[in-house]
Amino acid sequence: MHQTRKGNKWCFGMKIHVGADVNSGTAHTVTVTSANKADFGELPALLRKEDEVIFGDAGYISDTYKRGARCLGLHWKVNDKRKPRKGNLSSSQRKRNRQQSKIRARVEHLFRILKCQFGYRKVRSRFPQ
Prior knowledge:
- By secondary structure, the protein is α+β, with helices and mostly antiparallel strands.
- It has helices at 43-46, 63-71, 91-117; strands at residues 2-6, 9-20, 27-34, 53-56, 75-78.
- The two termini are 18 Å apart.
- GO terms for molecular function: DNA binding; transposase activity.
- Residues 4-127 form the Transposase IS4-like domain.
């Protein structure tokens, strides 16, 4: 975990990255990093040899990984992100994001289980100075 300060309060944070099967939604790989690490840095650790498609949210956008995935014969299905100076997404991009999000919802269900059933909705630690 990595500590960060918000105002005068120190908190710890972490991220959970999950590789899951597209059809069943079961997790095959789970990694945990500190909250200050970039999402796409964990992408190689989440892939298996039998994977054919990569789904992810906008945090996994990386041109180098996209090119690398295509060289390996993987289909890149990461949601498009709106660029500040280029305006909103086109209707075809929004439609594609919606279709991909329906599949990604199976993995998001795993996070719901962690948060709601195991009680990790808000886990915070504060330490005296």
